[in-house]
Amino acid sequence: MKQIALLGATGSIGLQTLDVLRAHKEEFSLHAMAFGRNTKEAVPLIQEFNPAIVVVQDEDTKQKLEREIDHSTILSGSGGLIEASVADSVDVVVNAVMGSIGLPATLKAIEAKKSIAIANKETLVTAGHLVMEAAHKHGVELLPVDSEHSAIYQALNGENAKDIYKLIITASGGSFRDKKREELAGVTVKDALNHPNWSMGAKITIDSASMMNKGLEVIEAHWLFNVPYDKIHVILHRESVIHSMVEFVDRSVMAQLGTPDMKVPIQYALTYPDRLDLPMTKQLDLEEIATLHFEKMDMERFPCLRMAYEAGRTGGSMTTVLNAANEEAVRLFLNNDISFLEIEQLIEQELTNHQVIHTPDLSTILSIDKTTRERVRSHLK
Ligand code: NDP
Ligand code: MG
């Protein structure tokens, strides 16, 4: 029986992880769960799964929850996330929080030699070098939950890194894939949240519409698979049937296919190297799909993807700035404080003004993350 610590239990990935646990009660048990402030969603989950440790975002939420349920171990804040992740009984930490807030807990879980199922791509974008260095040092493997990276992980099974010619990451194109750049000026939050293929949390849905999600995934792939940016390609594939591919030096291409359902990569990260049945997921019906489409990615049309490649190639603290500026700008957009196109403008401004630090340590990263967010907010005035 694997004991799970689930960070971000009330989110899109978190709830689907709980579906996987429900389907395999003999295999997995929930030892700890963390969420932000959504006690309404969380209380029935706590009652159902009865985790030994519950973590919430802040002290106010902790007090609110203590009034609602009788539970002996409710923790709060970043310290709580860490405590849940390193608890002795925990075998696997599923990091499904939104944003770079997941970084310190990931590093501590690696030090405690826990298996890490990582959905939280912002952690790798903001501090990939620290996470991978810690993983190598402590002999911990990061199991990707992001569907593209799970696909690449599966395609690479048993292969030698030296034989990789390139990674080919597929992009559905997000909510605005059929709009021209001129048409993006007046789009609303509601338009942006309407993703054609995947149902996900709000922030990643906006990232998909701006194509920043693909940019973050390129950086995530660079760190997870230790592949240079020149060998990471993005291709538009509107059906989201091929989740990503690896081309090898002998021109052989391995692809992983499936219906767009995050429960598949979530479960694989939990069962690896084994597999389990997943009855609630639809089988892939290629006869019904009949045709698959591929298009070249246009970097002018999607400047966020261009900026992510540039920040990734510069490296160091540049990707910390990319991530923090994006997180904050997306928050402002979701709040109706800025327009959709201002997201990319604010990020570009931050990247242009930043003096890169080449191998920032954790405190430098946390400080750059904080000041970048403050500056993005201040542009508003
Ligand atoms: P959601 O916004 O749906 O969920 C985020 C979760 O994190 C919620 O449970 C939220 O709690 C919790 N949370 C937020 N802040 C804190 C905090 N300070 N302390 C503790 N918990 C916190 O996000 P998604 O599930 O969509 O995405 C999660 C991660 O997975 C992101 O990094 C995303 O990029 C990645 N990902 C998501 C995919 C998807 O299909 N959704 C696909 C691939 C990757 P509360 O509900 O209380 O706010
Ligand atoms: Mg993805």
TrEMBL record:
- Amino acids binding 1-deoxy-D-xylulose 5-phosphate: 121, 147-148, 172, 195, 208, 213-214, 217
Q: Which residues bind Mn(2+)?
A: 146, 148, 217
Q: Which pathway does the protein contribute to?
A: Isoprenoid biosynthesis; isopentenyl diphosphate biosynthesis via DXP pathway; isopentenyl diphosphate from 1-deoxy-D-xylulose 5-phosphate: step 1/6
Segments traversing the membrane: none
Residues that bind NADPH: 10-13, 36-38, 120, 122, 201
Q: In this protein, which residues make up the domain named 1-deoxy-D-xylulose 5-phosphate reductoisomerase C-terminal?
A: 142-225
- UniProt domain 1-deoxy-D-xylulose 5-phosphate reductoisomerase N-terminal: residue ranges: 4-128
What InterPro entries does this protein map onto? DXP_reductoisomerase, DXP_reductoisomerase_C, DXP_reductoisomerase_N, DXPR_C, DXPR_C_sf, NAD(P)-bd_dom_sf
Keywords, alphabetical: Isoprene biosynthesis, Magnesium, Manganese, Metal-binding, NADP, Oxidoreductase
Q: What class of enzyme is it?
A: oxidoreductase
Is-annotated flag, keyword Protein biosynthesis? no
> Cofactors per UniProt?
Mg(2+); Mn(2+)
Annotated ranges, domain DXP reductoisomerase C-terminal:
257-374
The cross-references to SUPFAM superfamilies, in alphabetical order and at most eight, read: 1-deoxy-D-xylulose-5-phosphate reductoisomerase, C-terminal domain, Glyceraldehyde-3-phosphate dehydrogenase-like, C-terminal domain, NAD(P)-binding Rossmann-fold domains
* Source taxon at top rank: Bacteria
For the keyword Cell membrane, the answer is no
Coiled-coil intervals in this record? none
Catalyses which reaction?
2-C-methyl-D-erythritol 4-phosphate + NADP(+) = 1-deoxy-D-xylulose 5-phosphate + NADPH + H(+)
What's an example of a GO molecular-function annotation for this chain? 1-deoxy-D-xylulose-5-phosphate reductoisomerase activity
Name the job this protein performs.
Catalyzes the NADPH-dependent rearrangement and reduction of 1-deoxy-D-xylulose-5-phosphate (DXP) to 2-C-methyl-D-erythritol 4-phosphate (MEP).
Describe the family membership recorded for this protein in Swiss-Prot or TrEMBL: Belongs to the DXR family.
What is the protein's name according to its record? Answer: 1-deoxy-D-xylulose 5-phosphate reductoisomerase
Species of provenance? Halobacillus andaensis
